[in-house]
Amino acid sequence: MKKLITTLLFTMHVLMVIAQVNPVQTEQQLSPQEKFFSFSDYALPLLYDAAIQHSAEIENTEAAKRIASEEIQIGKRLILSGISLNSGYSYGTWFQFAGAGETTPSQWNAFSQPVRSNWNVGLGMSFSLLNILNRGNEITIRQMGLKQAESNRKLAEMEIRKEVIALYQQLTLSRTVLQNYQDAYQSASINKEISDKRFREGEIQVAEQIEAMEYYNASSLALQEAKNTYATNLLLLEERIGMTINTLISGK
Asked: Are 191 and 8 in contact (CB under 8 A)?
């Protein structure tokens, strides 16, 4: 039993040493995917832009900004509501005044009058003193509404960046954990094969064989859980940015 535990520890130590002695690759030597998971200053700006473009919150703030801008224009033109332009058109007969040398048609017979059409246009102005005094305040209020909408967008972007950072950190952590469990599973598989061979040759007892099997099963289960966690974190991040990580990287 002690010999088996020593073997397991030695194998894990060898794997860790191998991982540590591998030369560290520079950013230029890494593939886009490795660079994405290794350098947050490369990955996060890409995630920020994608998440903001895909965000429904940002769409709402943009709509609020457009509404506020239109309200400002309406407020500036509201003073013109006191000006009215009226026009009319009439067609028919009526009495006409005769000039010099002209005869006046019979005023007792409307049908004897000439038929004419007439346009009339009128311009009227009526301003409320209260509207005039409050005009500046109304425009100021509408401008403050625009500033509030712009501030809401900044706050929304800030919250999105915070969420993206948390999701990215969870994803990179779960990826590292997954890689470690993959190494542990490989180690457990090797030790299982060794223990099976030694058990067949009669070098170890049943208890040691069972222990190796339990270690292998535990490593297999832990690996599967790590895969599920990584897949979940990946899907959550991709849902936030509205595309897959591969699409995001390939589009850069």
From this structure: yes
Q: What does DSSP assign to residue 105?
A: P
pLDDT at site 160: 95
Two tokens at 58? 């940002």
Provide the token pair at 5.
């535990």
Query: What is the spatial distance between Cα 189 and Cα 197, in angstroms, rounded to a whole number?
Result: 12
Q: How far apart are CA 51 and CA 74, in angstroms?
A: 33
Contacts of 122 (CB under 8 A, 6+ apart): 85, 86, 87
d(CA 9, CA 112): 124
What local confidence, expressed as pLDDT, does residue 207 receive?
Answer: 86
90 φ, ψ to 5°? -130, 150
What kind and span of H or E run contains 124? strand 115-125
Tokens found for residue 179: 């890689």
Rounded Cα distance between 209 and 184, Å, is 18
Counted residue by residue, the chain has a size of 252
Model's pTM, two decimal places? Answer: 0.66
148 by DSSP, 3-state: which? Answer: helix
| Best CA proximity match to 47, nearest among 242, 180, 222, 184 | 242
Among 224, 131, 241, CA closest to 184: 224
Instruction: Please state the φ and ψ torsions of residue 93, each to the nearest 5 degrees.
Output: -115, 155
Bridge partner list, 118? 90
Residue bearing the bigger pLDDT, 142 or 52: 52
Mean pLDDT of 38-56: 94
